[in-house]
Write a structure and sequence with these properties.
The structure is a single chain. The longest helix has 18 residues. The protein has one domain: Endonuclease, Chain A, CATH 3.30.870. It has an eight-stranded mixed beta sheet, with helices on both faces. Helix 2 links the parallel strand 2 and strand 3. The chain is of the alpha+beta class.
Amino acid sequence: MAVWARGTTDEIKFAKRLKAGEPATNLRKLAQLVQGETLTAVHDPYIDERALETLQKLGGLGVDIFKTLRLLTVPKSEKAAASVNSFLQDLNTEIGSRWELRAISGKTKAHRRFLILQDKSVVTSGLSLNNLNKDEALDRLPMGNELADYDRAFFDDCWRTAKPL
């Protein structure tokens, strides 16, 4: 394993690390981490059409996505909201789903990104689904993990008060 040293460009090799310059590999890593479970919810402050396309690609790689996937983001401009909603409606029609996108209400908006799986595990990611071409961490926290429990409760609390985008 390489270690950081002053004056070197060696990078630390993590099994659950995404790398800039490898967006297709990063997509496959994310798919492999989710495999065997069903994706039920997404928290990402930057959900846009590209993020929805990434979800489509994950489905194409065998990731099971709930027909009623819940997507939580931050408020968008009226124009951006109309565009992403139009694409979401088209996507729902095409794949026979009822995905729903809501914007977090209130002043506090978490910047982190995570996916909730049906087994109550949580996949945390340092990058947004709208751009997988980055060097970021990726991890799956099992059900019962304190952080996974916190993220699920946070998502559910925000979902209750979120407004349709």
